[in-house]
Amino acid sequence: MPITTSPSFVDLLRAQVRNEFTASHQYVAIAIWFDDHDLPRLAADFYRQAVEERNHAMMFVRYLLDRDLEVGISGVDDVVSGFSTPEEPIALALEQEKQVTAQVEALFRAARAEDDVLGEQFMMWFLKEQVEEVASMNSLLTIAKRAGTDWFQIEEHLARESVAEGADSTAPPAAGGAL
Questions:
Q1: I want to staple 22 with a disulfide (CB 3.0 to 4.6 A). Which of 39, 77, 89, 115 is the partner?
Q2: pTM, rounded to two decimals
Q3: Any idea where the Ferritin-like diiron domain is (predicted)?
Q4: Domain 9-149 maps to which CATH number in 2.40.50.90, 3.30.450.20, 1.20.1260.10, 3.10.129.10?
């Protein structure tokens, strides 16, 4: 019986660069849909989220470079751009964040399995970040469901509840600098 091995931590890191760029593109597609439907606060929120995902990709790139590991940049997966209601892209974003959380957990487990303490330490920030991302998207989806067909209730919620976030001084550095 052949022995199957799990992907190495480094292989998963390289794959995560693509995953993060795909997430960024998905958020751009969502932001454009909101922008096209005259929902500027939702659009701005998702444009900002797209930049954040791009920055995450570049954090993985910087880590690979700092560890003197080969970096490969490939294309991104297809994204969804057609929606009927604001609830749909937000639900998609929540599922995407849950998927990224599973990917980050797999990265942490791989680093631990390989006794890569530097890799484990690097992944700790991303674990914390994913808790925040899933909670934020879950809350936004709840608001969208409550708003029903009154889409501007979501906009009003964002206007009332949004707080400008400062840079996280504990975040790993991004190759080329965070945007």
A1: 77
A2: 0.90
A3: 3-148
A4: 1.20.1260.10
